[in-house]
Specification:
The protein has ten helices and five strands. By secondary structure, it is α/β, with parallel strands linked by helices. It folds into two domains: about 140 residues, Response regulator (Rossmann fold), CATH 3.40.50.2300; about 55 residues, Orthogonal Bundle (Arc Repressor Mutant, subunit A), CATH 1.10.10. Strands 2-1-3-4-5 form a five-stranded parallel β-sheet. It holds the Pfam family GerE.
């Protein structure tokens, strides 16, 4: 009985995959190369396996192994944490001026967007908002974008920056920081110490410290300098 149930489940899974593959063919049959090559990189095996699994559902893509990375049309790169070493990693695996990358990043990702776009990044996906359709769309964009003019590169930087700001936003649609937190961060960025900030905002120094601690904890940041840098990179102050 167990074997029979398992067989039925396997058959259902195959039907779902076949249906998704058929839908994919219908959606992307026009205007795309018959086969585009993709190489998957990730800082952990689970990320690589998950991305590879999604590629199986896209019949117009062919995943290639690491030893032929130079020939890939697109490299999908899973990044963990803030991505501090990302530019170095991209340079190491770059396949030349036409190399195109799709990044999968954490919410804490804060690499300078302009620098990675210059290194070939054409789309960025956030793990917390990942979807198969978004993944497919990102790869399609990367396949279609090779050489960028200065204006199109600037437009792409603005687009990714806007998406990152949206990712910092909670469900109410405002910024990922409260108005009070942003005020404190602006004062910090202007070089004011806690005593002057508490006087300017009519709060105790303990309250200011609690405001900063709450923001650091929520965004998983290490210290006040990291917090201010994070807010600046996100365009919040």
């Amino acid at each position: 009985m167990k074997s029979s149930m398992q067989s039925a489940e396997d058959a259902d899974s195959k039907d779902v995959i076949a249906s998704e593959e058929s839908a994919t063919r219908r959606r992307w049959s026009a205007g795309l190369p018959r086969v585009a090559t993709v190489h998957v990189r990730g800082e952990d095996a689970l990320t690589r396996a998950g991305l590879s699994r999604h590629l199986v559902l896209l019949p117009w893509l062919m995943e290639i192994e690491a030893d032929v990375t130079q020939a890939a049309d697109v490299c999908v790169f899973g990044v963990r944490g803030t991505g501090e070493s990302l530019p170095t990693s991209l340079k190491r695996i770059s396949c030349g001026p036409k190399c195109r990358f799709v990044l999968l990043v954490d919410d804490a990702w804060e690499t300078d967007i302009s620098s990675v776009v210059h290194l070939g990044v054409r789309a960025v996906l956030w793990r917390s908002k990942f979807s198969p359709r978004g993944f497919e769309s990102a790869i399609r964009s990367a396949v279609e974008m090779s050489d960028l003019t200065d204006s199109s590169r600037d437009a792409l930087v603005r687009k990714i920056s806007q998406t990152r700001r949206q990712m910092l936003s909670p469900g109410d649609g405002v910024t990922g920081f409260t108005a009070r937190e942003i005020d404190v961060l602006r004062f910090l960025a202007a070089g004011m110490d806690l005593e002057k900030i508490s006087a300017a905002m009519s709060y105790s120094e303990r309250t200011i410290k609690n405001i900063l601690y709450g923001a650091m904890k929520r965004h998983k940041l290490q210290n006040r300098t990291h917090l201010v840098s994070y807010a600046i990179r996100a365009g919040l102050i």
